[in-house]
Structure formats: C-alpha cells, structure tokens
Design a protein that fits this description.
The protein contains 3 helices and 9 strands. The chain is α+β, with helices and mostly antiparallel strands and 189 residues long. The protein has an 8-stranded antiparallel barrel.
C-alpha cells in the first residue's frame, strides 16, 4: 500500500512539473502584447462611438446598430461610465443596453483600461490606435481574442477602414475574424 501511495505521489509531482513546463513554454512562445496608442486623451475619447466591425462575441450575439457611450464619473478620477447599446437582429429591433465602468490601469498610460459590466469581473480594454481627430478608434484585448473598430459616425470610409484593419493585422490580430456591424443608414434602417 505504501508503494502505491509513493507511486501516486510521484505521478502527481510529475504531472505538476509537466503542467508548469507547458505553461512556461506557452508563455515563452506567446507574442508580446499589442502596442497601444500613445498620448490618449480620455476627455476627447468621451462621447458616443459606433461599432463598425468586431470579432463576434457571445455577449453581443444578435446585436446590430451597436454603440458605446463614455462619460466621466464625477469625483472618481480615471473612472468612466460606459453604456453599450444595441438593437436585436434588426436596426429597428428591440433596444438592449448594459451599463458598466471603465478605469485606467496605469495613469501614465491611459490607453490601457479595464472594463466591468458584471461584478467582480474586470476585462482589459486597450485603445490600440485612435485617429488624431478622435474620429475612429481601434480597441482590443492583449490576448488578441477581442477586437473592435469604432467610429464617431455609423459608417467609415472604406480606405480608412482598410488602413485600420491593416494596422490590427500588423499587431497580430486576425483580420479574417472581423465582422462588420450593421448600422442604420442616413435613409433609414
């Protein structure tokens, strides 16, 4: 019986060593995190953004006409109120919204934020690129599992869109995963 226990402990130790070795190997082979936009001015980032394209996510399933509104939280420096809205299935479909918070992770680098829509969970929200006039933004996650192209208007010039997609690809994001978001047209839904 003691031999069996000793053998089980040896197998368990080997399993732990193998798990650690695989984890360290995965970390060693992981690409560096994507670069973020420099000199982000969160005051200029405030307001409404339209989702132009994104990687599909479970929490946005069936959403079209997606927008995000950012506003300061009074008396909480570095904290923003975030309200995401979308229409279900059609641009004139049922309106759904969720309110959350965003906070700056490092005050010296305001492009790196965390967002929270469900307590106690926070998720990385990195501003990877932003137009000098704050007309569009590229937002992603350091794991490269999430990506959004945002605009101040419901549509974006195709040349600008393709340049943003190329920028995302240069940072290791897969452009083939991007799906364009249906937005209302000036003539109606």
């Amino acid at each position: 019986m003691e031999r069996l226990r000793h053998h089980a402990r040896s197998i368990a130790r080997a399993g732990v060593r193998l798990t650690l070795a695989l984890a360290l190997s995965a970390c060693a082979n992981a690409p560096p995190p994507p670069a973020v936009a420099r000199n982000v001015d969160l005051e200029r980032y405030l307001g409404t953004w339209y989702e132009i394209a994104s990687y599909p996510t479970w929490f946005q399933r069936g959403c079209v006409a997606t927008t995000a509104d950012y506003a300061r939280v009074p008396d909480e420096p570095g904290v923003l109120r975030v309200e995401n809205r979308c229409r279900k299935e059609r641009v004139d479909g049922e309106l759904e919204s969720i309110e959350g918070r965003a906070r700056v992770v490092d005050r010296t680098d305001p492009a790196k934020l965390e967002v929270q829509f469900f307590w106690p969970f926070w998720g990385d929200y990195w501003i990877l690129a932003v137009d000098p006039g704050y007309r569009w933004a590229l937002v992603g996650h350091p794991s490269r599992d999430y990506l959004w192209i945002l605009s101040r208007t419901p549509s974006l010039d195709e040349t600008i869109y393709q340049a943003i997609v190329a920028r995302a690809a240069a940072e290791g994001f897969d452009p083939a995963r991007l799906v364009r978001t249906r937005q209302p047209t000036p003539d109606g839904p």
